[in-house]
Automatic annotation (TrEMBL):
Keywords: Aminotransferase, Pyridoxal phosphate, Transferase. Belongs to the DegT/DnrJ/EryC1 family. This is Aminotransferase (DegT family). GO terms for biological process: polysaccharide biosynthetic process. SUPFAM superfamilies: PLP-dependent transferases (SSF53383).
């Protein structure tokens, strides 16, 4: 395999510029930017302000939930204040608690591991699949085979003595992970599957929306996601009882009553405010147009990179529909040190002209906060991480492109 020379770093930069148009330090282009043009956002937010319904109750909250169900096919959606608390609540609802372990991939945003840690539980890292970005079903099965032991009713990590409580795959950059196979493995061990679908609204494996394979899945509506509510998140589930408990625990576990304050559990104040939900409805109404623009943008990148050596785009997995949230470039040279140097060169050159490319996250097991966590072999993740860099992917960039 070839290594990129300096001239090739130039060609990569030119290919990106050909797709996204001009940028400069004064007018930079970020990875993914919010956009409300052409939507009803102003009118809907004004309605909240005029009516005084700005907080955690109001009609936009239930309307946003209903429309999320309609779009994804979920029986239930519960909207909350961000994707991190959505995950923490989802994990709590499937029984993850203090001192448990949750199996998750190291290639994710830090929030995936943080949500586990917020419950007093421990991330336990399992490798990702070669040529895919999501957790590897074979590595998951092998890891459980190595460390898991059934003691009476609970599954224990025989190396740490702690209970193994859940499996938490991530749909990275909007590309569906192999959740059908991951579910088969987790089911065979009696483990609940929770999907971090924060980046995967409008991504499907077969005809099933991401987040609906396991017990519960979560979305994020942070400012850089496919659609945004400013800050926000959701739980998706087909389990009526789980949805009911999610709604209850996200609103301080208060028992319904016209005036009395009685709480039957230690709940959270996680509910999404009406103001944010109004933005969510306006963004959902614009979703098909955004998806179409993102698909076209991804195609333009594919065309621009078709003839370049030493780099390739991360492809939509087979039998899946990806939302193409972030377009990712992979450096293909064999030597990881060489690719790291090439990637650094590209990042420096791009940032100097206001093209704000970002490398994939530092693998979570390499962060000091999580380096002592249990882990299987992570060779695939460690080989992949230095190779990936994300390209500007906002749907509104399409308008700036030369056709
Ligand atoms: C964005 C994101 C989250 C967290 O969502 P917030 O709304 O920012 O709290 C969790 N996991 C992944 C993979 C994400 O990309």
């Amino acid at each position: 395999m070839t290594t990129l020379g300096a001239a090739n770093v130039d060609s990569v930069l030119e290919a990106i510029q050909q797709v996204v148009g001009p940028s400069s330090k004064e007018h930079p282009i970020s990875l993914h930017e919010p956009d409300f043009t052409g939507t009803q956002a102003w009118a809907y937010v004004k309605e909240c302000l005029d009516s005084g319904w700005v907080s955690t109750a109001g009609s936009w909250v239930s309307r946003f939930e209903e429309e999320l169900c309609t779009f994804t096919g979920a029986s239930h959606a519960v909207v909350v204040s961000n994707g991190t608390v959505a995950l923490r609540l989802a994990l709590h609802l499937v029984g993850v608690g203090y001192s448990d372990e949750v199996l998750l991939p190291p290639l994710s945003f830090v929030a995936t591991a943080n949500a586990v840690a917020h419950l007093g539980a421990f991330p336990h890292f399992v490798d990702v699949a070669p040529n895919a970005l999501g957790m590897c079903p074979i590595s998951l099965a092998a890891r459980l085979e190595t460390i898991a032991e059934r003691r009476e009713d609970i599954l224990v990590n025989r190396e740490t003595g702690r209970r193994i409580a859940a499996v938490l795959p991530v749909h990275v950059f909007g590309h569906p992970a192999e959740v059908d196979q991951l579910l088969a493995v987790s089911d065979s061990w009696g483990l609940p599957l929770v999907e971090d679908a924060a980046e995967a609204l409008a991504s499907w494996r077969g005809s099933t929306h991401c987040g609906l394979f396991g017990a519960v899945g979560t979305l994020s509506f942070n400012g850089n996601k496919l659609i945004t509510t400013g800050g926000g998140g959701a739980l998706l589930t087909n389990d009526a009882d789980l949805a009911k408990r999610a709604r209850h625990l996200s609103t301080t576990a208060k028992q319904p009553h016209p005036w009395a304050f009685d709480h039957d559990a230690i709940g959270w104040n996680d509910r999404l405010p009406n103001l944010n939900a109004a933005l969510g409805v306006a963004q959902l109404e614009d979703l098909d147009r955004r998806l179409d623009a993102k698909r076209q943008l991804a195609q333009r990148y594919a065309d621009a990179f078709a003839d370049l050596e030493g780099v390739e785009l991360v492809a939509e997995p087979t039998d899946c529909i990806s939302n193409h949230w972030l377009v990712s470039l992979r450096f293909t040279a064999e030597d990881p040190r060489a690719v790291q140097a090439e990637r650094l060169q590209l990042l420096e050159r791009a940032h100097s002209v206001g093209l704000l490319l970002r490398p994939i996250w530092t693998p979570l097991h390499q962060l000091p906060i999580y380096e002592a966590c249990p882990a299987g072999s992570l060779v695939v993740s460690e080989n992949l991480a230095p190779r990936l860099v994300n390209l500007p992917s906002s749907p509104q960039l399409l308008d700036g492109c030369a056709a």
